[in-house]
Amino acid sequence: MIVAFSVTPLGVGEDVGEYVADAVRVVRESGLPNRTDAMFTSVEGEWDEVMDVVRRAVAAVERRAPRVSLVLKADIRPGVTDGLTSKVETVERHLAE
C-alpha cells in the first residue's frame, strides 16, 4: 500500500517547516520507502507499518503544536511492491513515447 499524507500544525503561525520536518524525520527513520514533495509525503509498506508511521509522524507534530490537521490518501493494492517507483516509471515511459 502507498499512503500520501500531509501533516499541518495549526496555531503556530505561517512558518511551519520545522514542524513538518519533525513528521518527515519520523517517516525517513522508519526505513520504509518514502518520498516527500512540496505537498505530501508518500510512504509504502504493509497497512499496519504504514499507519504506525503516519500515527507517529502526527504525534511528532502534536508534541509542539496545539492542533494538527491530517490529510491522507491511500492506494490499497495487495501484492504490489515498489509502487512508489513503478507508478512514476510507467507515466514517464508514456511521456517518452
From TrEMBL:
Family: Belongs to the UPF0045 family.
Record Pfam families: Thiamine_BP
Protein name (database record): Thiamine-binding protein domain-containing protein
Species whose genome carries this gene: Streptomyces variegatus
Gene Ontology cellular component terms for the protein in this record: cytosol
SUPFAM superfamilies according to UniProt: MTH1187/YkoF-like
Gene3D superfamilies, sorted: 3.30.70.930
Matching InterPro entries: MTH1187/YkoF-like (IPR029756), Thiamine_BP (IPR002767), UPF0045_domain (IPR051614)
Matches recorded under NCBIfam families: MTH1187 family thiamine-binding protein (TIGR00106)
Domain Thiamine-binding protein as annotated: residue spans: 3-92
